[in-house]
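FAQ

Q: What does a record look like?
A: Structure on top, sequence underneath. For example:
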């Protein structure tokens, strides 16, 4: 690895390799982990060359270190594009495969940080838009333009309701229509896999939320019915 070309968020090239050596020696070195976090990722949104260069070493630590797994997951969530590091990302292919296996095993253990690991796995599967947005469905909202009349429709999937509505800044969500969750048997592709993983791991709220997300909503304005996930993905899928 030629670290001289691997700038971190602060334009430095020598700190990250030194910090990696520290956490490899002592995975409880919190100070080194904190510094790695802000050198590899800017605002948890932008990953720099040093992030991809560090990724395989983080994956190697990830089986026994929560910090390594979290940081590797954050790097994957930022890997959609626009970082100018496609060649470095391609070199991570082996480590990404290893990370996928590790995350799947971690999810099966039903860990406390389930959602973070689930989102990391979505990013590993290149479902970046879902990796960025999926919540625990305690209080989740999606803004979608109706594909028929272009009205801005608010989709709520949370503890206090699962509905489509028009959001009014004074009156709240008005003209609510109940969502029509997909039957798990009717799910296919990504939705089926996301749902099945949540069910397998005993995450019923997450599974029910995914059934809603991949189900249908009625536009309160024109009464047409559309599939929420299709419309959301169409407008949020990253340009690769
Ligand atoms: Zn409409």
């Amino acid at each position: 690895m030629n670290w001289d070309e691997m700038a971190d968020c602060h334009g430095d090239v020598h700190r990250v390799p030194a910090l990696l050596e520290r956490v490899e020696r002592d995975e409880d070195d919190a100070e080194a982990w904190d510094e790695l976090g802000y050198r590899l990722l800017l605002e948890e949104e932008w990953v720099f060359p040093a992030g991809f260069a560090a990724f395989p070493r983080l994956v190697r630590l990830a089986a026994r270190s929560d910090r390594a797994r979290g940081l590797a997951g954050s790097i994957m969530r930022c890997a959609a594009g626009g970082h100018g590091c496609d060649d470095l990302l391609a070199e991570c292919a082996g480590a990404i495969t290893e990370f996928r296996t590790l995350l799947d095993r971690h999810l099966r253990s039903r860990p406390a940080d389930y959602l973070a690991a689930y989102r990391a796995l979505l990013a590993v599967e290149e479902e970046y838009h879902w990796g960025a947005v999926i919540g625990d469905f305690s209080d989740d909202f999606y803004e979608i333009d109706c594909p028929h009349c272009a009205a801005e429709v608010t989709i709520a999937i949370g503890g206090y309701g699962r509905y489509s509505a028009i959001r009014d800044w004074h009156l709240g969500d008005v003209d609510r229509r109940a969502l029509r969750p997909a039957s798990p048997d009717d799910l296919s592709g990504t939705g089926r896999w996301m749902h099945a993983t949540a069910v397998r791991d005993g995450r019923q709220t997450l599974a029910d939320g995914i059934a809603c997300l991949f189900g249908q909503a009625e536009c309160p304005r024109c009464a047409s019915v559309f599939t929420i996930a299709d419309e959301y993905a169409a407008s949020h899928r990253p340009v690769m």
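Q: Is there anything notable about this one?
A: Strands lie at 41-42, 46-47, 139-145, 152-158, 161-168, 172-178, 216-218, 225-227.
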